[in-house]
């Protein structure tokens, strides 16, 4: 078996919205010369291009996939939302939620993005691939069942996971979200269930502003199966690994899933314009290696990584390449050109000690 990489050029054609970064144009907000929203195709395209140039792409099982079907979408999203989205898309585009614009054919492209994630999860869950990466765009982890937001139009991971449940290839799953923003969409879908453990590591007070609290632990039978770690701005490499080692991995092992899905946002990397964290390409390499080993220990290595945020066109490709090196076990590397500068900007020992203590205190407060 091999490592799968699911992508499609058509997803890079998603567009829409008159924005300057995240501000609507108008008044004193001027248009940007290089486009609108920071969620552009270039970070994803350059990621794939870098793997092509280094040769890593040739070591992967490259695949595309069909659009997610309406039946698959309806397991997560109500017909009323899908119909409104399709109608607006056919009419030329629009915006149905907060910071989630789309152009004509936006519905079909979003369904393709969800289809890539669904195919990746299906192939790994069925044992056709060792593990897989889905280069999904538009992203999905902010999209709630009837409310698109934060660049996300369909809940890609939730759709993919519900398909695996419906097909009987998985019964229990972990969704680990290390995007810099809270994974409110996945949380909303599974908040009252005990067959999915949702874990979100995110910068406190970033986006969405009123979600991602430490005390949001689930409801009903899902109580205790949602875990948020709102992390302090400036958390660096050591802080992230401490959270993974002391909180995330023990919780995954205790839950014993059939498959692990990572909502992989690269916006907690140091140069990202929408985050204030200090993660590096090495951070993503090390987090992926730890979760891969955990998957090998408890669920036969069944691990799927789904692309979410990350808005530095220069740096995202190197972070993504590092993740793919680990997933595939390849020795083909793309050395981080910012590694030295990144290491010099990491928190000092006293700050790291404080950050680790804060994470430990949060874990103790909620009993994990």
TrEMBL record:
It holds the Pfam family Hist_deacetyl. This is Acetoin utilization deacetylase AcuC-like enzyme. Residues 38-325 form the Histone deacetylase domain. Coiled coil: none annotated. One of its GO terms (molecular function) is histone deacetylase activity. The lineage of its organism: Bacteria, Pseudomonadati, Pseudomonadota, Alphaproteobacteria, Rhodobacterales. Belongs to the histone deacetylase family. One of its GO terms (biological process) is epigenetic regulation of gene expression. InterPro entries: HDACs, His_deacetylse_dom, His_deacetylse_dom_sf, Ureohydrolase_dom_sf.
């Amino acid at each position: 078996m091999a490592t799968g990489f699911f992508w499609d050029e058509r997803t890079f054609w998603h567009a829409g919205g008159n924005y300057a970064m995240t501000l609507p144009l108008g008044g004193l907000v001027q248009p940007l010369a290089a486009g609108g929203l920071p969620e552009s195709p270039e970070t994803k395209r350059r990621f794939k291009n870098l793997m092509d140039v280094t040769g890593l792409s040739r070591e992967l099982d490259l695949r595309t996939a069909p659009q997610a079907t309406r039946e698959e979408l309806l397991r997560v999203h109500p017909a009323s939302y899908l119909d409104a989205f399709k109608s607006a898309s056919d009419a030329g585009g629009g915006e149905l939620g907060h910071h989630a614009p789309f152009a004509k054919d936006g519905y079909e492209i979003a369904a393709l993005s969800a289809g890539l994630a669904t195919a990746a999860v299906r192939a790994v869950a069925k044992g056709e691939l060792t593990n897989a990466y889905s280069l999904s765009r538009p992203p999905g982890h902010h999209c709630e069942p009837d409310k698109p937001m934060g660049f996300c139009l369909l809940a890609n991971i939730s759709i993919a996971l519900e398909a695996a449940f419906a097909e009987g290839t998985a019964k229990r799953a972990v969704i680990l979200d290390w995007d810099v923003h809270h994974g409110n969409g996945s949380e909303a879908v599974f908040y009252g269930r005990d067959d999915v453990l949702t874990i979100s590591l995110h910068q406190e007070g970033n986006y969405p502003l009123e979600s991602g609290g430490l005390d949001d632990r689930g409801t009903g039978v899902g109580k205790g199966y949602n875990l948020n770690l709102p992390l302090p701005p400036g958390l660096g490499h050591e802080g992230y690994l401490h959270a993974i080692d002391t909180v995330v991995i023990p919780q995954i092992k205790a839950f014993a899933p059939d498959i692990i899905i990572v909502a992989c946002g690269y916006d907690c990397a140091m140069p990202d314009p929408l985050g204030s964290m200090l993660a590096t390409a090495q951070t993503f390499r090390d987090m992926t290696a730890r979760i891969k080993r955990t998957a090998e220990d408890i669920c036969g290595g069944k691990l799927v990584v789904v692309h979410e945020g990350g808005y530095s066109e220069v740096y995202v490709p190197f972070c993504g390449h590092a993740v793919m090196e680990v997933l595939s076990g390849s020795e083909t590397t793309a050395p981080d050109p910012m590694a030295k500068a990144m290491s010099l900007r990491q928190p000092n020992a006293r700050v790291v000690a404080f950050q680790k203590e804060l994470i430990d205190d949060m874990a103790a407060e909620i009993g994990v």
